[in-house]
Amino acid sequence: MRFRRPHLLGLAGLDAGEIGDLLDRAESSWEAAGTAGWRAKRTPAIARLSVVNLILEPSTRTRCSFEIAEERLGAEHLSVGNEGLSLIKGETLSDTGRTLQAMGVNVFVVRHPEVGAPARLADELPGAHVVNAGDGTGEHPTQGLLDLLVMRRRWGELEGRRIVIVGDVLHSRVARSAVHGFHALGGSATLCGPRHLLPEAVGWPGATVVEDLDGALEDADAVMTLRIQRERFVAGEAVPDRAAYRQKFGLTRERVERLREDTLVLHPGPFNRDVEIDGEVIDSGRTEVWTQVRAGVAVRMAVLSVLAEADPAPEKGP
Ligand code: NCD
After folding, report:
1. Domain of 204, in residue numbers
2. Residue 179 in contact with residue 206, Cβ under 8 Å?
3. pLDDT at residue 194 greater than cutoff 90
4. Ligand 1 environment, Cβ below 6 A
5. Hey, which end of the chain has fewer CB within 10 Å, N or C?
């Protein structure tokens, strides 16, 4: 099945055909994604878009790659963060959305600290398209797609592959989206980290949960390491000691040297060097981190052009 939805809110619930469709589109934007100043021939569908990136949490990669994707596609776009919006004056997100909609904005790219905020906005703004650019500990579907794209480019397909996701999985929307997408395409995930930062496997399709990283890495096809996302900890959750964490769960140079030569090393960024991954490993060229960033532009170009062709969510009756 092709991707024909009005919104992209998560990878949970998408089937292999829909994900494959988005990845095929992203593949066709690969050159554009890595080329400064590239401009698409502006299609009528793109010409009808007016995109606002509502980035209500710090972001480098996601924000800049959405902006670059919009620019390269030739879509009208602008970005605003908390500091520039009336949300801090007490306006609701829904009223901010309605205000922008009254100016003709029809695509909302939303990064928000609360799980479900983009989905709620999608319900409240009939006629608009909403893309979840990361909602609290919920999902980060365009990040999931870019991770899948990097792996698919390397392996051709993901069927039967195993990825180890190590670190603060509990607070990671990146991990959640990756696991759903990876599972839909026939792969499996091993989740690893300190016990209190691991979720129950329930709700994480095709995933197993382990605490021993060295065992998990044996024969892994890919390893993705995650930052300890302190800002998403709730009261009472202990932040691990950095040195002890690195020793048990860090992708140190020694651990990376023990990997199979063809094991992919992924990190969504931002990195905390010498905590979850050694700076030396990043600088060695052994990882896919910069390829992931480029894939992010390709995926965002794909998502926006597919949504441009999709029917918007129907207007609600009176
Ligand atoms: C991630 C995020 O925002 O969830 N970053 C990203 O979008 N590449 C991961 C993180 O914050 O650690």
Report:
1. 141-288
2. yes
3. yes
4. 61-62, 134, 140, 143, 173-174, 227, 229, 268-269
5. C
Q: Name the burial class of residue 156, with classes exposed (0-12), middle (13-18) and buried (19+) by CB atoms within 10 angstroms of its CB.
A: exposed
Residue in 55, 65, 174 to alter for ligand 1 test, most ligand atoms within 8 A of Cβ? 174
Q: Which atom of ligand 1 is nearest to the CA of 61?
A: 8
> Longest C-alpha distance within the chain, in Å?
64
Structural domain contains residue 318: no
**Whether residues 112 and 156 fall in one domain:** no
CB atoms near residue 232 (< 10 Å):
16
Please give the DSSP secondary-structure letter assigned to residue 82: G
Per the confidence metrics, is the pTM higher than 0.90? yes
Ligand 1 atom closest to Cα of residue 172: 4
Ligand 1: distance of its center to the CA of 227 in Å?
A: 8
pLDDT digits (tens, 9 = 90+) for 80-127: 988 777 787 788 999 999 999 999 999 999 999 999 999 999 999 999
Q: What is the DSSP letter of 221?
A: S
Hey, what long-range contacts does 68-71 have (CB within 8 A, 24 or more apart)?
68/297, 68/300, 69/33, 69/297, 69/300, 69/301, 69/304, 70/300, 70/304
For residue 44, report the distance from its CA to the centre of ligand 1, in Å: 33
Number of domains within the chain: 2
